[in-house]
Amino acid sequence: MLTLAFDTATSVATSALVRDGQLLGERASRAVRVLADTEELLEEAGAEPHELGRLVVGTGPGSFTGMRMGLAAARALAFALDLQLAGVSTLDALAAGAPGALPVVDAGRREVFTLVDGAPAVVSPNELRIEPGRTCVGDGAVRYRDVLEGVGAEIPHRESELHLPRARFHVELAGEFVDPEAVEPLYLRLPDAEQAR
Predict the structure, then answer these.
(1) Do residues 82 and 170 share a domain?
(2) Number of domains the chain contains
(3) Burial of 62 (0-12, 13-18, 19+ CB in 10 A)
(4) What are the average pLDDT values for consecutive 10-residue runs of the chain, which has 197 residues?
């Protein structure tokens, strides 16, 4: 079965095309390119959009605008191609790419999205309790490297692939495929515009 997955919740969007567990291609770019990346992946694989059997989208947490763009694109494709959709947490995808690491996504407002006691949370980097030697991955780990290394965390170099929520892991983590309208983003807080109001 041919599966398309993408995640636009972080500063770098990722997309992947997978057939029966085999990665056919993947991209990392800006969120606004996700549909162009999808078209290129299908073309390189010699596949047509109607051959897709499943869609998987990253649900965040992350950039409000990025998540909305990704979810809108995924829903539009699912409706156009009459497919069901699965949502996967961006934090879970990051963790799958670096087993044992703590996913840390930049949340803006001097905060990060991460897992606290296994549950998604938004906290100040200074509030994170990290065991010395634990690896942290994600754009939040890169941004707050000094703070996290100050409490003993290990952060891979800035250009490491481990900081990207690779869409190929979304395919592996996908659970139930449902009606596209049933897949919701994981916000964890109000968007900036709504909070200002």
Answers:
(1) yes
(2) 2
(3) buried
(4) 96 96 95 92 97 97 94 96 96 97 96 95 94 96 97 96 96 96 89 51
